[in-house]
């Protein structure tokens, strides 16, 4: 497969050259189909190769040529050359697509050499359409192309392709300028080239992985150094990334960062730190991955082998000694599982700031007291609502004294162990309702009451019997285990509820992304309502400050300094929030919102670019139409004037008065025609640029119609005027309205025959509107042309191509709308077209 970065880079040339090389070495090679596009250099490469004659097909009364699949299979060559893989076959062929024909050739045992442009790959179809603005209707599945034994890239710089185009080596001369101004722009070609290089590089990687897998090669191949850095979201993550990036740069290698999420899907690190580190990785030219796995060391090794990495960079562990002893060391596990082909680097943390030099990375209002080392208790208390905690505390405070009161009456009849089990009931009930806090209070209260009332000596915090010590200790252990388990269940329940809420929120945002043209406002509203923030905004960096892209809430931050949390979105955007209630779990959710916002912002920019491209395309269409129209309509009258003048100028010319007058009248008529053309062009230019000056005043329609008729050239057409002088005046600009009516009358007269009169009728309509109808009995306007009839440079339906450049109706509509009126089209009863001018009635004169 010869894969080209763009049309005209030489795919067919390379295919024919390769076929002839094999033919010269004795291989049976035939040409099944080739598109030379009348390029002599390409046709010369056929040399003495055998060409299978094409099949002749008739479709819609047209004779078309297609590749003769049956003839090639019957011929059974060793190699067949088939150009234009993405081609769509003529209806009536064996298959709808040429690549399906090639499948039959391969099944018949014939080797195929073919060509394809990168824009025809199915996976890149939407990307190419976005870049070039040209949809590709002929595509080939990537799986079919990747199944090729060899894929060779036919590359060429954008400048070289444009030079080939300018020299006429790709398109015929009449298509060169349009192609260079549209599809073959430097930016388009550079983007297509990058897509081709990336696709081929990915294909090479896939083939290497397939080869290693088929040959049982587990270790990485050092074809290129690839440095994998493991991120946990800790504070020294940026230090690790920069260190790994320097290592990769020294060996001209790639940087890959990976974060392993726990198997339960609950993020243990700070999402804003991870997002900042992800942005740093991308800024340094690396790749960021997030992997779900319960065994961190095993997941890291799997990622390293899948990415063919040669080095792993880890940071020193910040876990406690007890955590390392109980759960094992990730660093030791990675080293043990890395084998001989992976180098493991353990990087020590950077030098910390002194305590008296606090980092101002975290805003002041986000700093919280550390609860004297009881941060875990604060987190657990925050899981359950305060209302439930108060209810649980009331249960403990009320139930434990009641239990004590009831048991003291039978004190001495029950052993301390049995009494302690009774005390566990209110402790469990309080912990189940209110969580850890009421449970801890209940356990401590129960222990003290058991000691005071039931452990000799009573009414004293002293224990003399060793068995009582054991019983009370067991009570505390059981109470502690129950409280911990209740806390874990509450935490899991809270996390599950939070994840469900996040899933619902993300479903809403995903729906907004899919169904709304601009989902960014809905995303911001979702953040505002989900996290109950005081304000949220997306800021864009401009010069040395910030400007809001979009903001929501009563107090949205206008700069990062005013926010409690700032999350980068790309290189120049920042999501800022003002709230003191955000937790780590909320920030995890925010990181997902950031991705959605980045997509929404990118889509907004793409829409703006698409609108600009559409405007440019429209301007190009108008320019092309203008050039075509003007080149014709200027040349014709100028040629007539030239002929008449050259006939009158010679000294030896003898013309009688009648002939000379005829020539002079021709010159006068053609000058008037040129003058009208220039006026229409100037008028259209003023309308499109907004430079049209309108001076409204009361005018009489009968005067306007009379002036418009006088401005038209003499004609033998009949006119039927019904514009009474008694009609109210309308609010209009007299010169502009006169030009508009004249254009419409000229259009109606040219559509009508001399035997069918053109009617001009005016009448008073409800709501103080006046209508002026210009009715012709011509062939009318086809329904398919209605949407284009008032567009510039359109000569539709009955209009003769020699009569104007198609600006008359466009100018008339522009003038009338500028005066606050309307110009509409209707069918004439019995055949023809009716143009309706609607204008407001003027105020009575004082």
UniProtKB/TrEMBL annotation:
<feature type="transmembrane region" description="Helical">
    <location>
        <begin position="390"/>
        <end position="410"/>
    </location>
</feature>
<dbReference type="Pfam" id="PF02518">
    <property type="entry name" value="HATPase_c"/>
</dbReference>
<dbReference type="InterPro" id="IPR038318">
    <property type="entry name" value="KdpD_sf"/>
</dbReference>
<dbReference type="Pfam" id="PF02702">
    <property type="entry name" value="KdpD"/>
</dbReference>
<keyword id="KW-0472">Membrane</keyword>
<feature type="domain" description="Histidine kinase">
    <location>
        <begin position="629"/>
        <end position="843"/>
    </location>
</feature>
<dbReference type="InterPro" id="IPR005467">
    <property type="entry name" value="His_kinase_dom"/>
</dbReference>
<keyword id="KW-1133">Transmembrane helix</keyword>
<dbReference type="GO" id="GO:0005886">
    <property type="term" value="C:plasma membrane"/>
</dbReference>
<dbReference type="InterPro" id="IPR052023">
    <property type="entry name" value="Histidine_kinase_KdpD"/>
</dbReference>
<keyword id="KW-0418">Kinase</keyword>
<dbReference type="InterPro" id="IPR027417">
    <property type="entry name" value="P-loop_NTPase"/>
</dbReference>
<dbReference type="InterPro" id="IPR003594">
    <property type="entry name" value="HATPase_dom"/>
</dbReference>
<keyword id="KW-0812">Transmembrane</keyword>
<dbReference type="Pfam" id="PF13493">
    <property type="entry name" value="DUF4118"/>
</dbReference>
<keyword id="KW-0902">Two-component regulatory system</keyword>
<dbReference type="Pfam" id="PF00512">
    <property type="entry name" value="HisKA"/>
</dbReference>
<keyword id="KW-0067">ATP-binding</keyword>
<protein>
    <recommendedName>
        <fullName>histidine kinase</fullName>
        <ecNumber>2.7.13.3</ecNumber>
    </recommendedName>
</protein>
<dbReference type="InterPro" id="IPR004358">
    <property type="entry name" value="Sig_transdc_His_kin-like_C"/>
</dbReference>
<dbReference type="InterPro" id="IPR003661">
    <property type="entry name" value="HisK_dim/P_dom"/>
</dbReference>
<dbReference type="InterPro" id="IPR003852">
    <property type="entry name" value="Sig_transdc_His_kinase_KdpD_N"/>
</dbReference>
<dbReference type="InterPro" id="IPR036097">
    <property type="entry name" value="HisK_dim/P_sf"/>
</dbReference>
<dbReference type="GO" id="GO:0000155">
    <property type="term" value="F:phosphorelay sensor kinase activity"/>
</dbReference>
<feature type="transmembrane region" description="Helical">
    <location>
        <begin position="422"/>
        <end position="449"/>
    </location>
</feature>
<keyword id="KW-0597">Phosphoprotein</keyword>
<dbReference type="InterPro" id="IPR036890">
    <property type="entry name" value="HATPase_C_sf"/>
</dbReference>
<dbReference type="InterPro" id="IPR006016">
    <property type="entry name" value="UspA"/>
</dbReference>
<dbReference type="GO" id="GO:0005737">
    <property type="term" value="C:cytoplasm"/>
</dbReference>
<keyword id="KW-0547">Nucleotide-binding</keyword>
<feature type="transmembrane region" description="Helical">
    <location>
        <begin position="469"/>
        <end position="490"/>
    </location>
</feature>
<dbReference type="InterPro" id="IPR025201">
    <property type="entry name" value="KdpD_TM"/>
</dbReference>
<dbReference type="Pfam" id="PF00582">
    <property type="entry name" value="Usp"/>
</dbReference>
<dbReference type="GO" id="GO:0005524">
    <property type="term" value="F:ATP binding"/>
</dbReference>
<dbReference type="InterPro" id="IPR014729">
    <property type="entry name" value="Rossmann-like_a/b/a_fold"/>
</dbReference>
<keyword id="KW-0808">Transferase</keyword>
